[in-house]
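3.2 Worked example (two chains)
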Amino acid sequence: MSAPEPGLRELKKQMTRENIAGAALQLTLEKGLDSVTVDEIAQLAFVSPRTVSNYFSSKDEAVVAAGTPDWLEVVDTFGARGEGERPLTTLCELFSEFVGTRTPEQLRVALQIVDLVDRYPSLRPHQTAAYDTLEEALRARVADLTGTDVENDVYPWLVAAAAVSAVRSSVRIWGRAGAKPDQLPELLQTAFNQFSDGLPSPRPAGSAD
């Protein structure tokens, strides 16, 4: 069963959240994170400072939110695929499709976030929290689809951890290497394939076949 469409109230809240996050990112790119204040974010987003604080615990969280894809969309789609497929194979396909549908602007912002997280360590815990949320949701969904117990079986934990590690590592390498946007799905495919193959040791450069 698909999730119900959000109501007008939820859509307004989502738009406000995105507006605040976008303002935080814009100011950070213009001035540097240390020079940005919540009052400035509020002014640019046309909301009150209290509203900013209602949506985000800090300016750091708002900045990271501006470039964090809604990975939970993949979890919803994964749950609708049903049983009988190898979870990592399915997740590889779904994550690759998901990043393949991102717009050039969304990918540009994602690249900016990778750079900012490297420059400002205070952003990293918020990025980690987003990946933790994704892993927790995947863990529960894998358990449901495979008939395992998330409290006692290690399998859903391993699958979820492997999938999130593949996504996180691919995004980081993609961003730091200055790769082209269309190279991200390929990196994801490579990462998932290596997990599926049991992480074989790479051959040293120049070694014979």
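3.2.1 Second chain
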Amino acid sequence: MNKILTAALGAALVVASAAAAAAETQGAFFINAAVGQAQYHVGRSAGQGYSVDDKDTAGALRFGYAWNVGNGFNLGVEGGYADLGKVVARYSYSDGSTIRTGVHAKGWLLGGNAKYNFAGPWYATARAGWFRSEADASYRYSEPGYTEYASGSAHGDGWYGGVGVGYDFAPNFSLGLNYDNYHAKARYNQASIGGNVGTYMLTAEYRF
């Protein structure tokens, strides 16, 4: 089994075991949905005719279980799916031809999380784990009277981690603002590529 997956599963089990063993521990299932903006960390070129759009809409859906371990702390495990949008680069030549490339990253995630209520209903969160990323790439070359197109996809094991702050509007409902960084990796044949995607998202969570 992949080392990253093994580490993520081990961390989740440690969190679950420690929380379950705490005296008078109570817990709840949760589901949360997030939407915001992704920022692809890619190089930019100042060359004439070159442009890159490295921001796009992103979203994530997570579910899991969290244990109240006392003193305002909650520890939990989570799984879910994140769609990180697309980065697009274009280059226009003086003869009217253009090249357009795009990469769309998304994937499944599994990890652990922590929550601390530091001022009544106000809280801070942290999370980290394994990210099974998928990268869909596209390439298009156009010139007057001719267009060439190609596409493909690749998978890889990466990681994610993030922090956030929020407010509990009710015992079972909260809104928060989170920053998460996803290290996406993809492997195709003998080639391996990777990159970081940062996201700012508004998250709504329901506990039951």
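3.3 Remarks
Residues 3-21 form the longest helix (19 residues).
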